[in-house]
Amino acid sequence: MTLRTTALIAGALGLLLLIGGLIADAMRPAAFGTPSAAVATPVLIIGPEMVAMAPGGTLTVEGDGEIVVYAGRTSDAEEWAASRDATRVTGVPTWEELSTEPFDGAAASPEPTASGSADPSADASATAGTESAEPSATPSASASPDATASSTAEIADIWRASWEGDGTLTLDADDISTDYLGLTLVAESADGSPLTGVSMKIDRVVNDGWVTPLKWWGGVLAVVGLIALVSLLVDHRGAGSKVETAVASRKPAAPATPGGRRERREAMTASGGIPIVDGEIDPVTGEVPVQEDDAPAGPDDDPTDEREERA
User: Fold this and answer.
1) What are the start-end ranges of the E strands in 2-156?
2) Would you kindly state where each structural domain of the chain is located, as residue ranges?
3) What predicted TM-score, i.e. pTM, was given to this entire model?
4) Closest CA to 52 of 202, 233, 192, 166
5) How confident is the model at residue 178 (pLDDT cuts 50, 70, 90)?
6) CA–CA distances in Å: residue 153 to residues 45, 114, 133, 164
C-alpha cells in the first residue's frame, strides 16, 4: 500500500468522523434546562427543595401586573396561604416541564380544637380565643384593598425578605440558598389577579467533551485525504519532462523502407486489413512474388556480374 493510498483512506475516515461530529454537535442538548408551568392562582408556593434543585440557575414568576415574592419559614408560609387560592410547585418531571398542584390550606393549617383537653374551662378558653380571633381576621381580610399595606405589615411578622417586580420577577437561586437557606418562597400578585406562569433555569450536566476532538480530528484527516486526491489528479512531472514528451510526439517518424515489412504493415493498417498488391502476378502460378527486406546474398549472386550487367 502506497503512501498516497493510505492518505486517501485516512481522508475517507476523517470525512466520516467530521460528519459524525457535526451531527452530534447539532443534536447536543443545551447546557441548562428551562422547565416551566402555567399558573392560574394569585398565590404561588415554591418550597426550599425546589430552590435547591436549581444551583446556578434562576426562578422566574410571571404575571399581568406587579408581583411580590416573600421568603419565610415553611410553616408560616403555609399558614399564611391557607386562606388564599394558591398553587404549589411540586417537582421537575422533565427538563421542559414543572409539576404543580392546588395548595390545600385545610390540610396544612392546624385545627383550633386539636388540643383534645377534657377540661371544660380549657374548652371554654379555646372557644373564647377562637371567637376573639374571628373578628380581627375578618376586618383584616376585607379592609385591606391595598395589598402593599398588608404586605408591609406581614413582612415584619413572618417574612424574612421580599422582592418586587412588574410583569416578570426573576430571582437568583444561589443567592436565595445562601442567604435564606431552608425558607419557602411565596409569590403573590399585588392586585389579586392570577399569576400566569413560573419557570426555572437549571444547570444541566452534558457529557459532550468528545464532540470537539471528534470534529478536529475528522477535519485534519479530511484535509490529508483531499491533498492526496489532488496529488493523484494533477500531473507533477517537471516542465522539462513535459516539453520532451510534447516534442517527441510532434516529431515525424522516419519513412519506412520501400517494399519492407514496415511499409506493408503500415499499408495493412491504413487499408483496414485489405492486402494491397504492388508486384506483378505470376501468369503461371497466379501468385504475387514476395519481396524480402535486406535478403542475404546467395552463393550464386556475384556482385561482379551485376556490375558488368550495369556497365
Assistant:
1) 32-33, 36-38, 43-46, 58-72, 86-94, 97-102
2) 3-28+208-233, 32-106+141-203
3) 0.50
4) 202
5) confident
6) 20, 29, 18, 16
